[in-house]
Specification:
This protein is of the alpha/beta class. It has a single domain, classed as Alpha-Beta Barrel (TIM Barrel), CATH 3.20.20. About 40% of the residues lie in helices and about 15% in strands. It has nine helices and ten strands. The strands form two sheets. It has an eight-stranded parallel β-sheet. Helix 1 links the parallel strand 3 and strand 4. Helix 2 packs parallel to helix 3 and helix 3 runs parallel beside helix 4. The radius of gyration is 18 Å and the shape is globular. Bound molecules: ligand 8Y4. Ligand 8Y4 binds next to strand 7.
Length: about 280
């Protein structure tokens, strides 16, 4: 079988026998420090460097909380948070940098600052965002979401969630190809927790193999999410073991190519072990 390749700007990522790890770098106001833009940038860059040292293959930098019910962040504020962090990380490391944004202006400035991937939880339905990504030949992560971050968890409903996500990917891949983003630049993501109930999340996870039909890498973000808290009865910072179990399940089945996580070292260790075991299959 041909290995999967992901084209992003000047690079090509070739996926091997275990998933890559994408470390989460949140740039949000720190309620503990006296704040100031400087400490915010410094803390985020330091965290990114720590994640690289822990084995992250890609960093995902984001300045707008997309968790359920979160208020949108104004453009100027998101730019102020994210651009300096991307610029500094690009200057100081060779790591591939992804930007978690829905805003074309943020994408544009971050690509100019050295980012290689745009991760849009809204699935690149905004033609201006598509145009910016195409112009820079950026890698794109097309995530499925039902509704908007403000309202998506109010009452998620599907006839068949797996089928509807498949149909969304079909529609988006066609649309993007027409707008200058080739198949080779796309990574897909079922959007765990984005307009989905606990049962929807489990059904997607149990059927990730359905998304292999597109021949594109699959990104999976489950780290510390609500469905793990619900099933285990755990608060946010107690969900690492549950998160690892889900990532490991996907890695064991070779159904995820990119794991978006908070706990990089642990996830990488799990992926290394699962690869070794998978290799020993007879
Ligand atoms: C604790 C911490 C509880 C964080 C929930 C959360 C995904 C994503 C997010 C994903 C891709 C999150 C930006 C939600 N999730 N991008 N972004 N895939 N591609 N919530 O699953 O982490 S933010």
């Amino acid at each position: 079988m041909e290995p999967l390749r992901w084209h992003l700007r000047d690079r090509v990522i070739e996926f091997g026998p275990r998933p890559l790890v994408m470390g989460i770098v949140n740039v949000t106001p720190d309620s503990f420090s006296d704040g100031g833009h400087f400490t915010e940038t410094t803390n985020a860059v330091a965290h990114g460097l720590k994640l690289i040292a822990a084995g992250a293959d890609i960093l995902d930098v984001g300045g707008e909380s997309t968790r359920p019910g979160a208020e949108p962040v104004p453009l100027e504020e998101e730019l102020r948070r994210v651009v300096p962090v991307v610029a500094e990380l690009a200057r100081r490391t060779a790591a591939t940098i992804s930007v978690d944004t829905m805003k074309p202006e943020v994408a544009q400035r971050c690509l100019e600052a050295g980012a290689a991937i745009i991760n849009d939880v809204a699935g690149f339905r905004d033609p201006e965002l598509v145009r910016v990504a195409a112009e820079h030949r950026a890698g794109v992560i097309v995530m499925h979401m039902q509704g908007t971050p403000q309202t998506m968890q109010v009452n998620p409903q599907y006839g068949d969630v797996v089928r509807e996500v498949v149909e969304f990917f079909e529609e988006r891949l066609r649309g993007l190809a027409k707008s200058g983003i080739p198949l080779e630049a796309v990574c897909l993501d079922p959007g765990i927790g984005f307009g989905k109930t606990l049962e929807h999340n489990l059904e997607l996870l149990a059927n990730l193999g359905e998304f292999a039909r597109f021949g594109r890498p699959l990104c999976l973000g489950v780290s510390r999410k609500g469905f793990i808290g619900k099933l285990c009865g755990r608060e946010k910072n107690e969900r690492m073991a549950g998160s690892l179990a889900v990532s490991s399940f996907a890695a064991a089945k070779n159904e995820a190519h990119l794991l978006r996580v908070h706990d990089v070292a642990a996830t990488r260790d799990a992926a290394v072990l699962l690869e070794a075991i998978n290799r020993s299959r007879r």
